[in-house]
Amino acid sequence: MGKGRAGRAGSGPRLLRALALAAFLAPPALADAPARVVSMNLCTDQLAMLLAAPGQLVSVSHLARDPLSSSMVAEAAAYPENRGQAEQIFLLKPDLVLAGTYTSVPSVELLRRLGVPVVQVAPVNSLDEVTDQILLIGRALGREPQAEALAEEFRAGVAALDWTGPEATAALYYPNGYTAGEGTLADDVLAHTGFRNVAASAGLTGGGTLPLERLVLAEPDVVVTSTPYPGASRSEDLLTHPALAVLRQRAGIATTTDADWICGTPHVLRAMRAMRTAREALE
Q: Which helix (H) or strand (E) covers residue 112, if one does?
């Protein structure tokens, strides 16, 4: 990890983090691997597609097919989609449902009352937690060996991209001035690839907005922006502001796909590669 960032996001005891994530499992362990699994969350969609046995996963959420949100659009086309309604999911006769902690809460509660086992996963806030979540979903699916292999592959990918030289500064800047501060997966990606996060330095924890004036005064070495959405959007007007245009002329620009930053899946390695390339370009 970059100098000066040791002990930041993801540095808590691994055992406590694993136990906290495992608390979302209901039931704690299944006697047999589930035969019919439905995912109703973008992040569990992708982990399930990576880990499920052939025929085990019977439906994914509609977001899995959204190229602006999902890193596995082509793979998702092979599965029927759902929109998270309890009635729709119950009719699929699942013996396991995968969901996020904030996913269609009323639907999750109703499914549980109907006797359907539901595993909920919390948002991932560090690269260490990505491996925890891979293992959690693998356990729920009865695919522990496959999950262990995927988690090890991910750890190796992170290690290969880890930057050990001096830090530069980077700012994540999206429509409406949205950014990610300390304690987020994006912040940990920056830390591992040789960057100090401008938003974290400004005191922002979690997601929020960064005033354009603060961004300009910080003079980051790299500005990270997302691929523009199709059509006109007033939320993107700030990204064409003259002051930001001047800043971009001086700083490096890294344009990434939002989908690779959203979920705690192995696809976050693509975001890491983009940032490692941007860091190397500054040398």
A: helix 105-113
